[in-house]
UniProtKB/TrEMBL annotation:
Species this chain originates from: Chitinivibrio alkaliphilus ACht1
The protein's name in its UniProt record: Glutamate synthase, large subunit
Record-linked InterPro entries: DPD_II, FAD/NAD-bd_sf, FAD/NAD-binding_dom, Helical_ferredxn, SudA-like
Domain FAD/NAD(P)-binding: 138-445
Membrane-spanning ranges: none
Pfam families: Fer4_20, Pyr_redox_2
Residue ranges annotated for the Dihydroprymidine dehydrogenase domain, each copy included: 18-124
Domain of life assignment: Bacteria
Any GO MF annotation of the entry: iron-sulfur cluster binding
Length: 461
């Protein structure tokens, strides 16, 4: 059994799911989960843990799962991971824990993410009050995305009073506005947040740290002992091409926020979104895949990715690219938009692109794309979505004296534990690194929580 093939997770039919927001992957049955868990070799020196940014004891939880000790498996995961239902769905396990699994040398690695999701889903909805005795300290967190929630969970588990301030009217940050429900249902995020509330974490929405109250006011007047800044990187980048300000052009952030957070896809929604017939997305990351697949679900006749390198260089997860292809997304690889052509009313109607070829490697290690002279072509387009990255939100840094940033506007940290140039202020996640993965942001939040506990003279365990 240990060397048997990996048990695949059932998925919805591509033709059916491409027009709905129902979750693509259906989840394991109990027998499938236990069967997959029994493939684990239980290595004495498990390499998989080295690939986990939040240090889940992976062999231990899988062993409990293989013996059907589901609650114990859940407890092991929750000891280091506040959001297992989220991580089980959106973490790039193929680049982290699963990439180091010894079984992967001669076959399929253990499906760590699928098992984590099963354990989390099975235990979702518990209603026990898990609030720890107070240690007499309180910490503020700016931003309720994955970094902030991970930091909050780690601190609350050790008896620290935590208040999370969120600028939007819903909690969850990029988890709730940026990732479509066919990949991460909002209900899963809400269930994880509810558990943090039962641990005593307090959430305040419609509160912009740096506007509603400054960091100095939170520290000096409201008595917080420390602040963690996990405000993310929500400022979109746009290409400098003619027509980019036309009607029908969105940043991926705005497009996905309208659909995911504001539920613009539902009939009768008060939030408008243009439901084009020809959707073109510029970019090759997970956000680009989310946007182009969302375009299909809003009724597009065709939806196309335009990416200036090859599929090999795409930063998106292989699974997301695969799902997009299954659902009928077209890929214009080695191509780059040059101009948006407009109709008489100022709406985009076509994208003029140029073919590219790969030259020498650039600073990122990827081969630099170069235009092929005379290779211009056009694509029909009535919705053009830009998904080429985001920048850090500057509100906190600009309003906080002594909080340094780098030339990209990201908050500067002075060690690996999220300490910043301002005393009592810590930071982590996208606002430090630029746009990255959910699990890396969670790892940064957890590391900063450890530093906060240390600096407050509290035990980390």
């Amino acid at each position: 059994m240990k060397n048997s093939p990996r048990i695949p997770m059932p998925e919805r039919n591509p033709r059916e799911r491409a027009r709905t927001f129902d979750e693509v992957k259906k989840g394991y049955t109990e027998e499938e989960a236990v069967g997959e868990a029994k493939r684990c070799l239980q290595c004495k020196k498990p390499l998989c843990m080295k690939g986990c940014p939040v240090s889940i004891d992976i062999p231990a939880f899988i062993k409990e799962l293989s013996e059907r000790n589901f609650e114990r498996a859940h407890d092991i995961i929750k000891n280091t991971n506040s959001l297992p239902g989220v991580c089980g769905r959106v973490c790039p396990q193929e680049e982290q824990c699963e990439s180091l699994c010894i079984l992967g040398h001669k076959g399929d690695p253990i499906a760590v993410g699928n098992l984590e999701r099963y354990v989390s889903d099975r235990n979702m909805g518990g209603h026990e009050d898990t609030k720890m005795p107070s240690v007499g300290r309180k910490v503020a967190i700016a931003g309720s995305g994955p970094a902030g929630l991970a930091c909050a969970g780690y601190l609350a588990k050790r008896g620290v009073a935590v208040t999370v301030f969120e600028a939007l009217h819903e909690i969850g940050g990029v988890l709730i506005y940026g990732i479509p429900e066919f990949r991460l249902p909002n209900a899963v995020v809400q269930a994880e947040i509810d558990e943090l509330k039962r641990m005593g974490v307090v959430f305040e929405t419609n509160f912009i740290v740096g506007k509603t109250a400054s960091i100095s006011e939170l520290l000096d007047e409201d008595g917080f002992d420390a602040i963690f800044v996990g405000a993310g990187a929500g400022f979109p980048r746009f290409p400098d091409i003619p027509g980019i300000n036309a009607n029908g052009v969105y940043s991926a952030n705005e497009y996905l926020t309208r659909v995911n957070l504001m539920q613009a896809w539902k009939e009768g929604s008060k939030t408008p979104v243009l439901k084009g017939q020809h959707v073109v997305v510029m970019g090759g990351g997970n956000v680009a895949m989310d946007a182009v697949r969302t375009g299909f679900r809003l009724g597009a006749q065709d939806a196309t990715i335009v990416y200036r390198r090859t599929e090999h260089e795409m930063p998106a997860r292989v699974e997301e690219i695969h799902h997009a292809r299954e659902e009928g997304v077209d890929f214009e690889l080695l191509a780059n938009p040059l101009e948006l052509l407009l109709d008489d009313e100022g709406f985009v109607k076509e994208v003029r692109c140029i073919k590219m070829r790969l030259g020498e490697a650039d600073a990122s290690g990827r081969r630099r794309p170069e235009p092929v002279e005379g290779s211009e072509f056009t694509l029909p387009c009535d919705v053009f979505i830009v998904a080429i990255g985001t920048k850090a939100n500057p509100i906190v840094s600009r309003s906080t004296k002594g909080l340094e940033t780098n030339k990209k506007g990201n908050v500067t940290i002075i060690d690996d534990w999220g300490r910043t140039t301002r005393d009592k202020v810590y930071a982590g996640g996208d606002i430090v690194t630029g746009a990255a993965t959910v699990i890396l942001a969670m790892g940064a939040g957890k590391d900063a929580a450890k530093a906060i506990l240390h600096d407050l003279g509290l035990n980390e365990d």
